[in-house]
Automatic annotation (TrEMBL):
Cleaved signal peptide residues: none
Name of this chain's protein: Amidase domain-containing protein
Domain Amidase: 87-525
Organism phylogeny: Eukaryota, Metazoa, Ecdysozoa, Arthropoda, Crustacea
InterPro entries, sorted: Amidase_dom, AS_sf, FAAH2
One Pfam family linked to the record: Amidase
GO cellular component, one term: endomembrane system
Catalytic residue positions: K149 (charge relay system), S224 (charge relay system), S248 (acyl-ester intermediate)
Amino acid sequence: MMKQHEDNYERTVAQRIRERIMNHPPYIDKGARILRTGFEFVAYIIFALINRKSPKVHLPPINDEILLDSAVDLARKIRERIYSCEDVVIAFMQRIQEINPLVNCVVDENFEKALDRAREVDDFLDTTDKSVDVIEKELPFLGVPFSCKDSIAVKGLKQTIGLMSRKETVAEENATAINALVEAGGIPLAVTNVPEVCLWWESVNPLHGRTLNPYDSRRLVGGSSGGEACLLTSCGSPLGIGSDIGGSIRIPAHFNGIYGHKPTFSIVSNSGSLPDLRGEMNEFLVIGPMAKRAKDLRATLKILGGEVGRKKLQLDKKVDIKDMKFYFMEDDGGFPLISPVDGDMKGALFRVVNHLKSHYGVEVEQVCFSKFFHAIEMWSLKMSAVEEAPSFCEELANRKGEINPFWEMVKLAVGKSNHSFPAIAVAMAEKLAYLQADTKYQRKIIEGCDLLREEFQCGILLQHLLGENGVFLYPSYPHPALFHNQAMLMPFGFAYQSIFNVLKLPVTQCPVGLSKEGLPLGIQVYIGFVVSRLHNDHLTLSVAEALEETLCQWVPPCGVAVGEN
């Protein structure tokens, strides 16, 4: 009876949404889908031909076992004096010096101060009377180097967000999240590349250039935490801090085959992060951890969220996977402007689903939330509805007036613009959207979005279904990493992530091996992310940790030559 009620409610909501949003004949959808499919096919052929003979950049092999350790294990080995902190910092410094000329992920470094701090840590450990257990409790990440994206302030390092106008801007203080890690003993090592103002799915800008994917340098790394994900998977840092307003942690984590976590909103402070958002947009944006190893996510989140966040998110709670409920969805229902999920991604999803069934003996139920069809509209309109927020044109001008995107496009054509094509295109789209503001059609879309938001924030279906011990498996993107610039022709795949920013739910991104082309797949693909109710971050993290033990391991983008000389 309850199931029938849910199905009836689902159909009723879907019907109301479609009446308000999609008030046009069905053949419009079909026509748009046919045009998009043909366009993408031609674009793929063109990009494949262009890149067919382009040489790939190959990273040097990993030749130091320090580079392979998790942040948690490094902290333990430093405390126990298995490694000196200085040796650890030097190992990652040298790795950055090896890889950065090849993939261009680091935009500023803190090497000298990091080495000084490492020596201080070694001196402290050599002379302290404190036990290893006490040190672990007081300074859980003592001596562990870490990195973060350029938009998050690290005192003394550049904070440019990819803008030429901020070329010489240096952060005067640490962001709150960075301070938390430093107070836990962490050592800032570097900051990494982002797209302009962190609003694009490829990490490229006129100031620092383009970051290349370590698995295939012809491919993009994602954005906006793309430089960070690239550095982590290349073993240039054991731990990273990113931010996410529409998939900016999860898309790069997916494209680079690592773990990433978007926490429940308001747990981790955004103070010191750019752009400085206001109103509800500041709740859509979250700062979270990224790493090669799943267990580093929980350990880092305990620090970033403080004691209050630790308790709210139940991060010390033990979870038995066999007692959990699992649900999954294959796609968004076929929004006509978004690519369908490809075969490799579906294979990754069903590999995880079948693994959960066979290894843990749990049921995994396929469901359909028809509301996800409208994810891109919901995110876009909620982002633009925050009246007190500066426009993207103002952000590109560093909030000193605003750019004219149409004139900037003319300047770009003759090589005179200080902005990238994607940034200018987004700004133009924003201007054109303003021309349509408050039209009858726009009001219908907003009303439909309010229906979506009301249902999810009240949790009428999702929370009833998931309960207190359920998670939802969903693609994090329709396909693996695209070729450079291809995202401009296929821009809407981020809807698979952005829906959960609007809903403010916790999400964990997990890798699930490589595609036949050698590109990362994973929970960032069809088991793209693990989604749960507000403050149930411990569930998604527990699933990631369990899957890492038996299926979802990080796969290095290069050879491993540890022990070879």
